[in-house]
Amino acid sequence: MPATQPLPVTLTGRHVRIEPLSLHHLDDLFAAGGDDDEVWRWLGRPTPRTPEDLAAVMADLLEDAGRGAYVPLAVIHRESGRAIGWTTFMDIHLPDERLEIGFTWYGRAHWRSAVNTETKILLLTHAFEELGMGRVQLKTDHLNVRSQEAIARLGARREGVLRRHRRRPDGTWRDTVYFSLLAEEWPEVRARLSARI
Question: Where in the chain are the domains?
């Protein structure tokens, strides 16, 4: 079966619900980490200082989604019912059965919790088992050790580094560390991640 285009979707776990991102999530997202320098440090955009700044970032993302470049999804903390971050399907290439999970952030209160693991289980299950992807990649700044460790804990394999890959908002250059999971690796990785939840 050929890979199919990801579309806005709702996916539900025990701790989080993932749903299509929209501007009605703005207030929750700004409260969760919209103006937190540490949350935005590695995201390739300046830290939004006001709800209007964050709305502009969201509007750009939603505009790109309208062109099929991204599928942005809000991450909802089920216990509180509030949006605590977002994630996207991006770099989608159906002929090669691949996509990327990226432009992900969560409010600092949810770091090192079940949120990231369960979010990734839901997204990876959808990508491999429902969309028919053969490869899912994740990437991060080479200086973002916390993110690299989180990706490695998911079971993704570190593939390499693209040097001087992107300019950061402060004008310095980022090297980008790439990781991936393949469809044939997913059943074992899923079992291990599910046991952690």
Answer: 11-196
